[in-house]
Every structure is written in structure tokens, then in C-alpha cells.
Fold:
Amino acid sequence: PPTRKRQEKPERGTKIMVQDMKKRNPDLAFVGTRMSSTYPLRRQEIVEDEPPVSELMVRWLALFTERQVCAVFFLLLLFLFVVCCLFSSVCKIEASNQRKRTAMLQALPWCLRENPSKFLKMCEPTDREDVIKGMTIGILAVVEEVKEPLPAIYSDVVLVMEEHAVLRKLGYVPNAFMNLMGPLYALNMNYPNDLKYTFEVIQRLFMGIGIESCTARVHTLKHKLLS
Structure:
């Protein structure tokens, strides 16, 4: 096991990084360097101790930023591009690209015979805190009028983990999907059981990770998309 002296230096670096992140204008270059240097400590801590998200948001505050999400999982940069390319031939909605991507991602679980109602939620601003309660992992779209199934404008799009809003102001649902994959890996969390095929599509087809090992259901969808 590591000695106390070896542990003290990373611990000091972690505390300094947290203090910097609490500033109005944190030094992102400094934080990025610290996050890279403390990766082995962070990964060991997350995998072995399995701390709750609320604890990680205090100890590793920088982990819950879009900048670090992309740094942890750089393949996310390909995500929106692939979604748009794969579905452009089947999407006939007269709308912006963002609304087309949103429509396709919302429809994806249903195409795979999965129910996303516990994962994808929509509410008005006054109901936000009540809806977050009970969400283990998911995306919350905050809109002025919930009767509109595909809003043009969102008041907020929030990434929720263990009843905590870990990322806010994500703009659009596709961006929330993109930012979700990073924390799932960084926090060593499993995909939602009731959306295992949906996340298999995102991982294997959209991001190209393990594409040769698709289940039969995902392989069928892949064939339909590319035919």
C-alpha cells in the first residue's frame, strides 16, 4: 500500500484544485493539469470505494464540468456528428438539426422496445426539484410548456445522477446525452438496466466502441440504419 508521505502530496493537490474551482474565474489550465496528475488516485478511489455522487461533487468538483467530461472521454466529440449522419436519411421532420437529433434520441429507446420514461423527463421550472427526486440517472428537460413534445427552446437541460443535478445549462437533449457518457465512465457507473440496448447503440454504433460485439437487437437496428 502507498505510504502516508506518498498520499499527502496528491491530497494537497486535490484540496488546492477544489479551492481554485470555487473561484469566479478558475484557472482551467491549472485544474486540467491537476486532474490529469490525480487520475490514478481518483480512479482507484471511485472503483474501490464507490463513493456517492454527492461526495464526489465535493471532492472532485472539476469532474462535473463539460471541459473535464470531454477530457475524460474524448470520443464524445464524435457523438453529435454520428447521430446526425446515421439518422439524416430517415428523419423527415421540418426542423433545426438540434430538434431532429432530439427527436431521434427520444425515439431511439422505443425503436429498441425500451421505455425511457424514468430516464428522460420533462417538467416546468416550478416542478424541477420535485421531479429530480427519485431520479437515479437521467436527463431532465425544463420547459415553459410540457404539452409541447419537441420544444424549440428549453429553459434548462439538466444531467441528473443520484438525485443531484450534476450538470446544468446543457442547452439541448443531444448535448446532455453526449455529456452523460463521460461521467458514467469517470464514476464507474453502469448503464440503466431498462435502457441497456439504447446505451449499447450509443456506445457501439455512435461511438464505435466494441462495434463488432453487438447484440442481435442492436445489430438489427444497425442493418436498418445503414441499408
